[in-house]
């Protein structure tokens, strides 16, 4: 096993030299997590809007379920997807297990409840605030939702960034359905776990640096979006 100082030096060298293996892992991580975030927003935002702006029997139960699923353990999601995509599962004929597609599916299932729950809270608060205006203009449901989404676009972008941050840092589900196969399904979190277990700290630290940088960038974007939303509100 390398010493910490030696490993840090090698890790910096890998990042500065744009090591091919390192950035192959980073590219796949970004592809999987961004794809999952787009899909989660495609499913989660409409669901959040529906729960925020409509009242129906069983809505309370639906809210409890969506909020509970926010804390769903990643390994449970991974196991669920594995069972469906394995050869003996109902979707085994698709041959998706141990592919980036399986990892995207797992991450999408993991972060869709987060997007739905957070967007529901944002839109419901705005719907209460604008209730009188909506009634005075006699707007239909579709028009209400369009108005809420437009006015809440910065807050909803923050929700999407939160989903991406959760996806890119996830390890449990993707290692189950992806298998951590070199040059095929190895992403940053699974590579860090593998390299650390092997005692090869240089690549693990290099990937950790990139992952921390991504986390800082996402948080900076969230802060920037919130600041922009605040300025727009008082403009």
UniProtKB/TrEMBL annotation:
Annotated GO CC locations: plasma membrane
Membrane topology: Multi-pass membrane protein
Taxonomy, superkingdom: Bacteria
GO biological process terms on file: transmembrane transport
Organism, as annotated: Marivita hallyeonensis
Keywords of the record: Membrane, Transmembrane, Transmembrane helix, Transport
Assigned protein family: Belongs to the binding-protein-dependent transport system permease family.
Domain ABC transmembrane type-1: 26-222
InterPro entries on file: ABC_perm_TupB-like, MetI-like, MetI-like_sf
Name of the featured protein: Tungstate transport system permease protein
């Amino acid at each position: 096993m390398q010493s910490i100082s030696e490993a840090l030096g090698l890790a910096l060298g890998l990042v500065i030299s744009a090591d091919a293996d390192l950035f192959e892992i980073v590219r796949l991580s970004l592809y999987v997590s961004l794809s999952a975030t787009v899909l989660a927003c495609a499913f989660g935002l409409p669901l959040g809007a529906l729960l925020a702006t409509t009242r129906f029997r069983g809505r309370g139960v639906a809210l409890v379920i969506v909020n509970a699923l926010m804390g769903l353990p990643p390994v449970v999601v991974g196991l669920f997807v594995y069972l469906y995509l394995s050869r003996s599962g109902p979707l085994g004929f698709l041959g998706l297990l141990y592919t980036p597609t399986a990892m995207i599916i797992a991450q999408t299932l993991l972060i869709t409840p987060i997007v739905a729950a957070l967007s529901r809270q944002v839109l419901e608060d705005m719907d209460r605030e604008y209730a009188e205006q909506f009634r005075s203009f006699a707007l239909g449901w579709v028009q209400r939702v369009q108005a809420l989404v437009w006015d809440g676009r910065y807050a909803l972008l923050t929700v999407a960034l939160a989903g991406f941050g959760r996806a890119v840092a996830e390890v449990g589900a993707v290692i189950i359905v992806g298998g951590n196969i070199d040059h095929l399904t190895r992403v940053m979190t699974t590579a860090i776990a593998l390299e650390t277990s092997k005692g090869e700290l240089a690549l693990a630290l290099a990937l950790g640096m990139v992952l921390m940088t991504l986390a800082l960038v996402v948080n900076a974007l969230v802060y920037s979006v919130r600041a922009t939303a605040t300025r727009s509100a008082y403009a």
